[in-house]
Amino acid sequence: MAAPHDDDEDEKPLDPAVENVRRKLVRFIVINLGILFIALMAVVVALVYRATQVGEERSGPVSELPVPENGMIEADIVLPRGARVVGHSLSGGIVSLHVELGGGGQEIHLYDMSDGQQVGRFTLREAQ
Hints:
2 helices
């Protein structure tokens, strides 16, 4: 017959050094699980935010250009005499021209492509 199991052996207090190590380990696990939970919640919040933003239409000055029947948009852009285009950019229905003037100055001209009109002009100069 087997010897009866002693419950006193299972309930012996741990050595103080071992108990100290066990407490540190439990604290380490709790802290790391808390950090992991916070990081997981941040990811979930980011995914929910992104999912709600995808369906919304972006507002802004982007306009659709009316395309004529022949498929070509044509307009005249009038620049000052002696000016030369240094660079250009297109955003939505607005074209931006970086222009070097004949006298050595520089300007940025903005044109609305839907009606061919100049909508802005910025002179570039050094701060004083």
